[in-house]
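Proteins fold reproducibly. Look at a concrete instance:
___
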Amino acid sequence: MESNRLRIDSIDLSKILSKEDFSSLKIKKFKKGNLEYEDGSLTLYVFKSGKAKAMIYEDGEEFVLYFLKANNIIIPETSCAIEFLEDSEVYLIDADKFANLFANKEFSTSVIRSLKHRAELERNIIKNLVFKSCKKKISSFLIEIATTQDQKRDGKYVLDLNLSIKTLSSFIGSKRQTVSTIINDLKKKKIIEKIDKNKYIIHKLYELENFE
């Protein structure tokens, strides 16, 4: 998986923190397949290398919120788990250390902005999962990624969708065959067009917005 579900904010600690602060950070290694849950502490995870996914469970179903890779940040909490997809290294910043680093304006602003953005994304994703039909979930998902990536060709959004149907199904909480049928329907109606291995162009944005 080479990209996040959405463009998650990143923090390159080496460019923000002093050498002294940076060298004092604890690094924890995780093996592929490890699961990490909230343990009662307030700890900021900043990915140094590797990949993971943040997900929630509901009625035996897994919903992927987003993928995490180098420089992405997350604070584990009770509503979601982190599953490591590769051997990974993560900087761990506990609450006490975070308080010391808070004097660094660039660092604190980046963290607050990222966590605010993350909370908004999670609320939107969960709202879509709960309240929208499968067709509407897919159309909202495609529009959300397209507007986040903000790539255009001749005034039309180009969508870099580096996802399998299985992963997309997990994102929106629907069966793989249902998602595949809906994507094919969008292509047949020329609402979207596949222009490369993982790229689509949205020809009819209004129809996609109202696809139900």
Notes: The chain has a mean pLDDT of 79.
